[in-house]
Design brief:
Helices cover about 10% and strands about 30% of the residues. The protein has one helix and 13 strands; from the N terminus they run αβββββββββββββ. It has a three-stranded antiparallel β-sheet, with helices on one face. It has a three-stranded antiparallel β-sheet with strand order 2-3-8, with no helix packed on it. A three-stranded antiparallel β-sheet has the order 11-13-12, with no helix packed on it.
Length: about 200
């Protein structure tokens, strides 16, 4: 999303591993953001080097597994998938259960095609860091203001209704033309049984 940033200083060719604070010095947004990008690149590179570019872990073997449920309809399996180092997660739908390993609740039923969280199109991103974000609760919608953050979104497409739909190419996911917008041009399609495109965007 757009935001008020002084500059972007991260450069992978410098091979920096961390950013250190000094006493008596003013904290700069560029320092914080460079540290975030250092860690993000490290985690993504490490994930791809260790497990590969498109992997479904043994802990969630049915992640994004497509199961036909009717003409033009299918369910999307619960679990995690790693695509180009990015984590895509299908959290499932109610009834909910508590996952003691992660300390959170998650759905126990797969997600129907038409109930995907970012389907049919991702919600529009705020245009400024001061724009209120909507946090959806079961009984109400709460407006809140928060700092810019990155988000990995996924959408499973029906090749029955969209027979010629390919995964986006890197050129389709090029960085935003706006100086304050930052989109990561990453996309990867997994095996044919798990037709999912993953993209990291600012949100």
């Amino acid at each position: 999303m757009g935001g008020d940033y002084t500059r972007w200083t991260f450069n992978p060719f410098k091979d920096y591993a961390e950013v250190l604070k000094q006493q008596g010095r003013v904290d700069l947004d560029a320092d914080w953001n460079e540290l975030a990008e250092i860690l993000n690149r490290r985690w993504r590179a490490e994930t791809m080097d260790i497990i590969g570019r498109a992997v479904v872990p043994e802990n969630t073997p049915d992640a994004f597994l497509v199961t036909p449920t009717g003409p033009g309809q299918f369910d999307i399996g619960i679990g995690r998938m790693y695509v180009d180092g990015l984590l895509a997660e299908c959290h499932g739908v109610a009834p909910l259960t508590y996952d003691a390993s992660l300390g959170e609740v998650q759905g126990t039923d797969p997600v129907p095609f038409n109930q995907q969280p970012y389907f049919p199109d991702p919600s529009p991103l705020p245009t400024t860091s001061k724009a209120p974000d909507a946090m959806f609760c079961p009984s109400s919608t709460i407006s809140m203001v928060r700092a810019p953050a990155s988000q990995s979104r996924w959408i499973s497409h029906s090749t029955t209704s969209l027979p010629s739909l390919p995964c986006p190419s890197p050129s389709d996911l090029a960085p935003s033309s706006e100086p304050s917008g930052r989109h990561t041009p990453d996309s990867h399609c997994s095996a044919t049984t798990r037709r999912t495109c993953v993209r990291s965007v600012s949100a």
